[in-house]
Amino acid sequence: MSVYLDYNASALVRPEVQDVMAKALADNGNPSAVHAAGRRARARVETARAQVAALVGADATAVVFSSGGTESNAQALLSALAAGCERLIVCATEHPCVAEAATASGKPVKMLPVNRDGVVDLNRLRELLGQPGRAVVAIHHANNESGAIQPIAEAARLVRSAGGWLHVDAIQSAGKIPVDMAALGADSLTLSAHKLGGPQGVGALVLKEGREAVRMIHGAGQERGLRAGTENVPGIAGFGAAADCAARDLAASQAHVAWRDAAEARVKAAGATIIAEGAPRLPNTLFMAAPGWDSPQQLITLDLMGVMVSAGSACSSGKTKPSRAILATGLVDLATNGIRISGGWGTTEADWIRFADAWLEAWGKRRARAAQTVEVA
Predict the structure, then answer these.
(1) What's 95's DSSP letter?
(2) What's the pLDDT score for residue 319?
(3) CA 192 to centroid of chain Cα atoms
(4) Within the chain, which residues score under 50 in pLDDT?
(5) pLDDT digits over 171-196, tens only?
(6) Suppose 198 and one of 37, 193, 204, 338 were both cysteines; which one would form an S-S bond, judging by CB atoms 3.0 to 4.6 Å apart?
(7) Of the candidates 137, 195, 145, 136, the residue with the CA atom closest to the CA atom of residue 170
(8) Which residue(s) pair with 341 in the sheet?
(9) What is the Cα–Cα distance from 9 to 195, expressed in whole angstroms?
């Protein structure tokens, strides 16, 4: 039986979510309709809105549903620029959807560097904020590859004192560690259902009181006029159920720390480099690199052994794209050697042990073959 350890890419859908979505699909109505089916659909949407808001300590009226985190991140940046921000400061390890949306805005963009463990340089942020023009600053709460957690509250104080807008992508952190919008000091925050055990294709933008979103998709007046188009009622209902479950299971997610750390110690002793090892990290995430062993080769080998993980980089046309998270930390020689192991609500200690066993077995065979090659030469 295969082991799934790729929750940071997409969590397995929770049984509670499947049940809620099945009921919504069986009782389909347009939430804008005034008849009974429409009212039931509207109730599902608003229940989910309250559930998603509760996960991050926000008011339900602050939540705008979308097609996913990519759309919501773009809407957040455009909203900040519409509010008077003239330039963007983007964390160097930000998800591509944020980095590319910033570039596509046509406004000046400065990269905010990170240290060797992938944590933002607050002194450099202070310097960048001191330059002319109001800035929107984008810093993800936790990196999607390494799991490194950023000092958001400290960054928020700097951004606030400079009159800027802080956007926080909390897509990876929500449901794994506490996320409270007020405590973080974020002006806008984004979430994605499928990282929580919900369906793919549903996300949310959450706005601080007093901040307004701009409309990206025009049409009728859905989502208080902020996103046109008939709501994906089953998906949104599933999002709400996933948020509810994630809040319920938040304390239990800490069990991954011991399981992850035990696996990490074993692979590190065998020669793997742990990325962001010195930073506070998400409890479920291990990002590691093996010298001379490309990410795709590791993934294929592990998959054939029944263990599903992901690369720290995207692969296309047989070529490995260097990991943004590794490059930003200065470990250039390892940029195409990273793999990410990430557990979730359905993961057990045995799954982490099986990963470590499989990787160590494959690594041992690889090193033995390399040694034989050297002897023959």
Answers:
(1) -
(2) 56
(3) 8
(4) 315-317
(5) 999 999 999 999 999 999 999 999 99
(6) 193
(7) 195
(8) 286
(9) 7
